[in-house]
Amino acid sequence: MSSTDARVVVVGAGAAGLSAAHHLVQNGFSNVIVLEATDRIGGRIHTVEFGDGIIELGANWIHGTGKDNSMYTLAKEKGLIMEPYVFLDSEKEKTLTERSTEIDKLTVKKAWKIIEKIEDELEDGIRFKKDLNCQDYIEKRFTEEIDKRKLNDEKKTHMLMFCKIMSGYLGLYVGDDLKLASANCYEMGGEYDDDNDVILSHGYSLVLKALKEDLTDSSLKFKRNVVSIQWKSEQSTVKVICETEDKTVEEYLADHVIVTCSLGHLKQFHDNLFHPSLPQKKIKAIAKMGFGSVGKIFLYYEFPFWRKEESGIVLAWDSSDDDAWYKSIFKFSTIPTCENVLLAWIHGKASKHMETLSLNEVARTCTDILRKFWKKKEIPEPSLTQTSSWSRDPSFLGAYSYFAVDSHKSCISDIAEPLFVADKPIVCFAGEATDSIWFSYAHGARSSGIREANRILKINSTSK
Fold first, then answer.
1. Whole-prediction pTM value?
2. Can you state the angle between helices 205-212 and 70-77, rounded to 10 degrees?
């Protein structure tokens, strides 16, 4: 058997899986099969038509435009990056209170300066007591910063409202309730070469479709739910068992398997998926790492009620009724790919609750919020509503990884460590939660897929 005849099964056709398969095929491997549980490619990248445009139910933009961003360089190579880049303009947002009063721009600017200072402290890796979470640190520091300033009662109230805004803003960054996120490990990833977040005007999914073009139809199999990975045998091969949509059982023998399913899926199913069980070190790392819930609410209006120059509103909630799910929404924004749409982000347990509600209930609640804050009673209910549902989908069970209070950077390397049989990496692991630099990002998923493909390339080139 030549080095490129090795049989490789890739579990998952998201950014990591497609990148791994594409890289292997590009390097001469001909026996590559991708098993995908859903009926589409993309994983947590999912562009859909909505209203008179498109929306991103999953990954929203490419973070950073440097050469180290593997997703950006791929999109650039395929001619999918349109310059000048498309950005949302936060300068055109209003910050409104529940009494429909607008907080003046100077106060907003000062509050964001405090937010940036606190975020910088977290990013600088200040070390706290072991179990300190982000929420407690933010609330303490924000109060300290406010107390330093001589403010009248109204301005102090407005400034304190920004602590909730910060929780919403950073909650989306982390991907979960900040009470669950470690203050010690808030920023352990890479730093961008620039601050450019690129929105792909024709849809993020086109980047992955470009990878799919180099794979044969026979190598990409949809609606195959992998139920068992039997990874120890005398022949040093792996048996992958999957079920089709009609419950037909299929078996695949492989020399290597690359598992790219989400951390949420691993948390829920690893006990039944791997035979024999995973090593205890890997199981503990999977359990300790956080996997958050981030949701989106899209509201489409045939006749937008906002002025074209407005890019949305930031919501300054008061302190009462904090448990209401909708108070996780901290702003409504316009989006450049569908000009008649408002987008609301939501995270943590509130996002999970939102996914249990009907679209009509979500639309009514959002309409009530908009009428209350914007002081426009004539605001209509949206013509169309769409929400994401990553936490309820068994293929994902959440959005992206983060460092929970009792986790550490070693958790990522432990999750990424292959399963070896006779010094051969027989089961490899890829996906954003396995990239120690770009965890939680789509380009981290892509880079991890290429990393594991290179691991297989190397072991087969040395075993000729």
1. 0.94
2. 70
Give the whole-angstrom CA distance, residue 390 versus residue 159: 33
At a CB cut-off of 8 Å and minimum separation 6, what does 422 contact? 236
Kindly report, residue by residue over 101-142, the tens digit of the pLDDT.
899 888 888 888 898 888 888 877 666 566 789 999 888 998
Position of tokens 């024999």? Answer: 276
**Interval 225-236: pLDDT, tens:** 999 999 998 788
Mind listing the pLDDT tens digit for each residue in 333-374? 999 888 899 999 999 999 999 999 999 999 999 999 999 998
Tell me how far apart the alpha carbons of residues 20 and 8 are, in angstroms, rounded to a whole number. Answer: 10
For 243, list phi and psi in degrees, rounded to 5: -115, 140
All residues at 6 or more sequence positions from 383 whose CB lies less than 8 Å from its CB, including other chains: 51, 300, 301, 302
The Cα–Cα gap between 177 and 172 comes to: 9
134 and 186 Cβ atoms separated by less than 8 Å: yes
Question: Is the pLDDT score of 238 beyond 90?
Answer: yes
What number is the average pLDDT over the span 22-38? 96
SS (H, E, C) the chain: CCHHHCCEEEECCEHHHHHHHHHHHHCCCCCEEEECCCCCCECCCCEEEECCEEEECCCCCEECCCCCCHHHHHHHHCCCCCCCCCCCCHHHEEEEECCCCECCHHHHHHHHHHHHHHHHHHHCCCCCCCCCEHHHHHHHHHHHHHHCCCCCHHHHHHHHHHHHHHHHHHHHHHCCCHHHEECCCCCCCCCCCCCCEECCCCCCHHHHHHHHCCCCHHHEECCCEEEEEECCCCCCCEEEEEECCCCCEEEEEECEEEECCCHHHHHHHHHHHEECCCCHHHHHHHHHCEECCEEEEEEECCCCCCCCCCCEEEEECCCCCCCCHHHHCCEEEEECCEEEEEEEEEEHHHHHHHCCCCHHHHHHHHHHHHHHHHCCCCCCCCCEEEECCCCCCCCCCCCCEECECCCCCHHHHHHHCCEEECCEEEEEECCHHHCCCCCCCHHHHHHHHHHHHHHHHHHHHCCC
